[in-house]
Amino acid sequence: MHRHASCSSTPMGSSRAPSHRGSYSMEISSAAYAEQWRFDKEALPEDLIRRGMAVRGEDGKLELAIEDYPYANDGLLVWDAIKQWASDYVAYYYPCAADITDDVELQAWWKEVRTKGHAHKQDELWWPHLDCHESLVQTLSTIMWVASAHHAAVNFSQYPFGGYVPNRPSIARINMPSDMGPDGMRVFMEAPDKVLLDTFPSQYQSAMVMAILDLLSSHSSGEEYLAMYQEPAWQQNGKINKAFEDEFRERMLRIGVQVNKWNMDPERKNRYGPGMVPYVQLRPSDGDPMGAKTVMGMGVPTSISI
């Protein structure tokens, strides 16, 4: 994992104070993991359904609750491309189900994921069994999605959407008007700007948060982007090379063109227009990410990158 800066390399009191949850961070994360995390819901379509942002129609196709939803619109294109690449790869190396179930190393790896990586959830019934083409493709696609596009959407959105501190204040320094006593709402109505400024982080805190978010949202100089680089062994295999170059890479490049069109479409109010930031976090690399003029929209890294 590429890291521009380690959180542990800077004093807790200086870098984390404007936004850090202190001793409760791991407790919050652990509670969320225990109550909500399921591997079978980490795939984008299933995640959208779980969050009430999509349903499956009678024909099995996904229907979005909000049509103009940039993360889902772009993400589903990337998800489909990833899944097709995984399907082509699995079909070549595992032409029948027996090849999957008889692969000792593959089954041992999946057992380790469940029993070591998620020991507290290893007995859950929702874990997929690697016993056929469909289950292996879905499993690999989910892992690739989470480590590449999902993380890119979360990580590289931090500065574009949170760098302007009033848009996403890292802390509230005073209580909400309703909690400020009987005069709280009156004071707010008389001088709302002052109350908001008193609520927002200080200038020092805001500048620090902006710097940290900018750093976290920047791409590594040696970044590898999804569908841009092949393993040498793939290049030497005609069928795999074709599936990667002619299918996966070309499909990702077409997705980039589509995303650019959507970002210029006046009908898409959630990504175009006054005050709106073009949604580029899931726009694939155009093949020359280092030629970009901005830290945003340089591509989707192949793996988690901070």
UniProtKB/TrEMBL annotation:
Protein's UniProt keywords contain Oxidoreductase: yes
Pfam families: Lipoxygenase
GO BP field: lipid oxidation
Keywords carried by this UniProt record: Dioxygenase, Metal-binding, Oxidoreductase
InterPro entries membership: LipOase, LipOase_C, LipOase_C_sf
Name the record gives this protein: Lipoxygenase domain-containing protein
Region (Disordered): 1-21
